[in-house]
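pinning this so it doesn't scroll away 📌
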Amino acid sequence: MVLHAGVADGGARATAILARVSYRIALATAAAYPDLDDDGRLVLDALRAAGHTAEPVVWDDASIEWEDYDAVVLRGTWDYSRRYDDFLGWMWKIKDKALALNQEPLVRYYADKRYLRDYESEGVDIVPTQFVTVHDPTLEHDYLGVEHIVRPSISGGLLEARRFGPGDAEASKAELEKIKAAGKTAMISPYVESDLERSGVSLIYLDGEFSHAVARSLHIAPDSDPSDELRPGEDVVDIEPTEGERRLADFALSRGVTESPLYARVDLIRTPKDAPWLIEVQLVEPVLFLGRVPGLAEKFAGQIVARIEKAANA
């Protein structure tokens, strides 16, 4: 790190704080997104504008010397679920080489959606889900007679999700067998058609504080191929969360956490009586929709730097 010469006239207060010291920060991404996604580019630009050396770095690039960075932030590692063991091994390695601002224990816990069973055991309403492990002897499951989705428990959002109808029992069981054959746990849920009226709701938290919320409409075509792309398309609108949604999201991020994650997104299904269902808690690679709030990327960049400074002064 080096001392920064100064701040341009008219810069915002956040930029002034950022520019006191210059850090070298790696924004870890996947090979398919070498130039980052939309959120990542906004953060990259904000850090650079404040005088820091911020760089997109492919996480599994063996040539990278992680010791050369003051901090590493996950901001595009969309392939983590398909290379789970390699990814966790990398997370374990870099935490001794640079400041990993995404805490490895939280990443490991929330990367596998079996954590939903812990929430359910604590009385949280989750989207009804059946988990099937490699040790379960049958391919029969509770949702063969209805529209449902099948996916590995380690998957990014709806990546690798397949949708089946009530007449697709054999295809559904074949997908389940495929997941089990790969040594993975499968999760099966009823397919809840989500549009912007009966929506999935995402509450975004930055540096432990609620930031903003959006309604998202994600659709999975019955004949979708999960290998087509790393990220599915979606429609998004800005919303204000209800009291029940805030209460559930706040609880989801408070349980068993000694240090707030750098960022998180809590995904819910909105219900008429304000008793939302938890879909998942995303701490690994959620889209944060930073561009929907003016100045938010700059604020988030400041929070990144504040965490680096806190660790440096510890």
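📌 and the second one:
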Amino acid sequence: MTAAYRLDRVFVATPSLDGALVTFQRLLQATIVARRHDSLLRAKRATLQAGSAQLELLQPADGVSPIRTHLDRYGEGVYAISLQAASFDGLVAGLSPQAVPHTRYPNEAWIAPEAGLGVRLRLARWQEATPAAPGPVAGIWEVSLAVGDLDGVASRWKSLVGLPGDERFNAGPPLSYQGAGLLFGDDRSEGRIELCRPTDPQGAMARFLRKRVDAIYSLTIVARDLAAFEAHVQSLGLRHHRFPNGSFTIHPSQCHGMLLFVTPGDQVWPAA
């Protein structure tokens, strides 16, 4: 079976579009695909591609902007994620009968965080995959959400989006959480949404959850050559932490509010 979903893109709120462009071009060796004004989000928008992944950098334009509201409340970081859905029309048609707060457009629908998914979600109509760009990053494999009610949020994903959270696991220190993996298809390499309920009240994830309630905690990117990419990160002088299995994290302060996990393509993170 082919994947029913594909991580389409990640939206990042920033007060400085030019500054974020410099950061991610240097770090990910990403290519600028487009720059434009986004009238829906009332923001200046730049699209970057790194491997198969696309980052949408958003700087609030003049006037009232949901991006400005996000920055004022939470600071820089991930604003939303976007999934392409093979059954887009059927999924969106099922939202209103369930009283799910959303806004529908011809080829996309925005589901509000109040829907209980732990994230602001954009559903998009399925399209042919964009060819992967060259560079050190193959793509984004996983989006991790910190949540307080693991079973409740997993149930919402299953009922609203059709992604079952049947893959369960426990991550020990220093990560310390119970997890549920929502796979995009039968093949784990196609990616997943990971729901994380912290188990250490003093841990970083628990502290994050107390500040943000349910929200995106991290992104996991796949490096084509892990050792070479880590050397690149070191050459840039970026704050990072290496795990015994070779994977490493790049601190949010270095990535405009995003915590990045970096892993090789033959390794699933975290181990079940």
